[in-house]
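#structure-requests
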Amino acid sequence: MTAPGVTAVGVGEIREVGSAAFAWLSAHRGDFALGEDALTLDGHVDVTWKPLGELAQTCASVRAHTPPSDPLHACASDLLRFAWQQTGQGELFLRLQRLEPFATYPLEIYSVFASAGFRHAGYEAAAGMTARTRSWRLTEQEPTRRLGVLRAERRSGIHRRERAAQTLRRTWLGGLPEPWTFERSSGYALTHVVFHLTDWGRIPTGVPADLADYLAHWLPPWLDTCLDAGMWDLSCELLVVAGSLPGPLDPATLQHAWTRIARAQHPCGALPEQDHPGDPGADREPDFLRCYHSTLMAAFAAAQTVKCLAAEGVPG
């Protein structure tokens, strides 16, 4: 049965957004490459490992949410292999482990590859040894980040007794806050809580029932607020969340959101993080660091939305 309000043409437009985003990502794969500063103590992780890890996460997720016959599946697989090659087939993670044994970001990024079947036994052994120390267990982290680390451990074959349920209830979303307190920072926090609980959309039942009901009620107005503010990056993350919940997607909300995002997408396929009215450079291709993440999220959200609509009987 076709959901009212979302036509086959609408699904096609969503796919076009995802395809254009992947075309841009493929054309700019060199910008994701690790430079010589990736293993230096004064290197900037936010412009080396972070973009590469986010590329890998998006591609691993899209590959999991699309059939092998889908062109997006092939594109995501190609970029995922590129990202793995950049890590020296995992060897650089072992070197990072020796340089920063108690840093969590190497394990968080490595776990993305592990979830897609790319593994490095030497790194996993070293990381597992570190994870058994009291220092690792007692590292102070915000609850949302802690959920991510626990998910990364499970993906990488590290099993400890720490319970994610207790950590969840210390997050903004886990406390079921007053909906009018939603803002940019809490928005990003809640999306990542859902990402960690559902393993990036793979396990919809991972969201407890009370949180799923809360999100089903308040996600549409929050998304509408972000769209009105031109917050395209966060809007796409919220669309991923919408597609990661156990309930059906709201057709009217999806139609409105994807129309706005399609209009905001640059002809080259890039999606800016934030709308900047009056910016004299608005007609030029956005700067890589200011658009790569939002473009990744557009690709991910498109794949997730199309998958969910197909499950609801909407033709694509």
